[in-house]
Design brief:
3-stranded mixed beta sheet, 6-stranded parallel beta sheet, alpha/beta, globular
Length: 303
């Protein structure tokens, strides 16, 4: 059992299992979420309810966040929106805030600067690995900010992540996550395109997946998503609407830094089509359905 209290704001598909793992590791965990059900589930698991973002911060030595987008972080942390009790109102000098949300690098930098004025250290620490990684505690955590501050909270992050990497100053974690999402989207779209083509050409989809997984095309998506994709199973491990949002962050950053992103721009449009067609809460591998719509038929294994 550790004496540290960990606050956790944002108990969604990723945040709740991460918070549960901290409880299991012996931490006192105080949580908050916009809806009550995840908080109740955390309490049943041994955590506590914080009542509000500020209430969580008041109780905590380290505050963790896992929120959907940049405006949510600005609202919940800084009160730049409708949140009446933002995190900043409850933070004590010397507290560390670790933001696992995927947001704009420039917003991450601004939040860190604002909290530094209050004597609070902020680390941007977006995550990758999907719901499975959150449940198993095997996430990849990409950290931007002060390296000494990271070392002080590394034991906490090690509970949730198999890989914790310091990527540079504030904002560098978010830049690294954008790189991650660029590659993830390339995999998802590439695998989808290959499977729809294979089906149209009359190949055995299961055999195709087995064959190319063992060659140079082998990747996480083929190993972890393709077996479900060819059976039409798109239950979410990571929402397509979040992938769409992450690609918007990446393309905006690419434009700001003068980096061409032709593949990412195309993937962004395909995920936009998913969201516009009511598939935003499907898994991000569900982009295959857009390729199927374009092809005029489903690429599926019988049975």
């Amino acid at each position: 059992m550790t004496d540290e209290t960990i606050g956790f704001v944002g108990l969604g598909i990723m945040g709740l299992p991460m918070a549960k793992n901290l409880v299991d590791a012996g931490y006192r965990v105080v949580g908050h979420n916009r809806s009550d059900e995840p908080v109740e589930e955390l309490v049943e698991h041994g955590g506590e309810a914080g009542g509000s973002p500020a209430g969580v911060a008041e109780e905590s030595d380290v505050v963790l966040l896992c929120l959907p987008d940049s405006p949510d972080v600005e609202n919940v942390v800084l009160g730049e929106g409708e949140e009446p009790d933002p995190v900043i109102d409850g933070l004590r000098e010397g507290t560390t805030l670790v933001d696992h949300s995927t947001i704009s690098p420039t917003v991450a930098e601004r939040v860190a600067e604002r909290l530094a004025d209050e004597g609070v250290t902020a680390l941007d620490a977006p995550i990758s690995g999907g719901e499975e990684g959150a449940i198993e505690g095997t996430l990849s955590i990409m950290v931007g900010g002060d390296e000494e501050a990271l070392e002080e909270v590394r034991d906490v992050l090690d509970v949730m992540g198999e890989t914790v990497t310091h990527c540079g100053p504030s904002g560098a974690g978010q830049t690294t996550k954008a790189c991650n999402q660029i590659v993830v989207a390339a995999q998802m779209v590439g695998v989808s395109e290959a499977l729809v083509f294979a089906d149209n050409a009359g190949a055995d989809l299961e055999a195709v997946v087995d064959a190319i997984s063992g060659g140079a095309a082998g990747c996480w998506t083929l190993d972890n998503r393709a077996p479900d994709m060819i059976h039409g199973d798109f239950d979410p491990g990571f929402f397509a609407e979040y992938q769409y949002k992450d690609l918007r962050i990446a393309t905006d950053a690419g434009e700001a830094f003068g980096s061409p992103m032709p593949q990412t721009a195309l993937a962004h449009e395909l995920y936009k089509t998913m969201v516009q067609n009511g598939m935003g809460r499907d898994d991000n591998s569900g982009v295959m359905q857009v390729l199927e719509m374009m092809a005029g038929g489903e690429a599926r294994v019988d049975g």
